[in-house]
Amino acid sequence: MMKMRLTYPYQLSARHGFTILEMLIVVTILALLAGILAPILADEAENARDGRRAADLRSIASTLAHYKQVTGGYPSTGGAWQGDASIYGGFGYGVGGYIPDLVPDYLPFLPKDPNPIYPTVGTGGYMYRSDGIDYKFVLNDTPSEYYVSNPFYDPTRPLTGWQVSSPGGYNW
Fold first, then answer.
1. CB 16 within 8 A of CB 82
2. What integer pLDDT is reported at residue 36 of this predicted model?
3. Which of 28, 75, 97, 123 could join 110 via S-S bond, C-beta 3.0 to 4.6 A?
């Protein structure tokens, strides 16, 4: 008896993987999506940093109000600016930081800018000034948005800073 062999008019080929053209199309689509999303994500990161800065300002203002209630005055710098930027002394964030006597009794540590490039060698960073009667706490050269309607508007640094202050320190 003879074996019969079946033949088909066409033969299916086993295809594994993707062609180079398919891979190029996928990579192109992903690159386009990344190009569209990158600026949006960068803006959101800036907004998040500015939100952290605003929270730092509110926290320091309330802590200084509490400090004054307890001690009768604000932590004094002798009327000189102190900050984390080197031009303002390069003070740290713990005991002996840029706002004297606040750490550790009133705050565990002083705020640090959420952007790791600050403080800078120049003026970018947080700074504080007080004569014991009035104070001013400033974010200098760090926020990404400066505008007059900002609740932290600094009349002395309208294009470079945000601030919280006592009434007497507002124009320092």
1. no
2. 84
3. 97
